[in-house]
Amino acid sequence: MIDTIRLKEHIYDVVGAIHNVHKELGPGLNESCYQEGLQIEFTQKKIPFKREISFHPTYQGVKMDATFRIDFLCKDDIIVECKSVPKLIADHRAQLFNYMRLLKLSCGILINFMPQYAEIERYFYDDERHLVVPVNRVVHGRRIESNI
Asked: What is this structure's pTM?
C-alpha cells in the first residue's frame, strides 16, 4: 500500500521549487530555460538532484542498448519531467510512468510550464501492484485531488 501522506511530504519542497521557477520565469519559455531554473533552485534550496540522467532498461536481468533520459532525479527517488507545451497529453504521462516503472521509483512529477499557471501532476508508483496512481494535479491554478 502506498503511504501517500509520507510521499506528499517527501516531494513538498520539490513542488515548491517548481512553483518558484514558474513564478520567476513566467509562462511560455522553452523547456531548457525551466530546467536551468530548476537546477539553480534545487541547488539554492539544497534539494539533492541529478540532471539529465540516462539509463538502460533491462530484460531478464540483461542491460539493453535502449537508452532513456530523465530530466531530473531528486532525492534519489523522485523523477521530475519538464514540458513546455500547449497541453499535456497521454504520451507525456506515459513517458513518466514508464520511467517510474522501469526504475521502480516511488514518485514522479510531470510539469507543464507553458500555461499561465504551471500544470503540475504528481504520481506515485505502487511496486507491489505495478501501478502508477495519480495523487493530484494543478490545472489553471486549481488543485484537482485524487481519491487514493
From this structure: 0.87
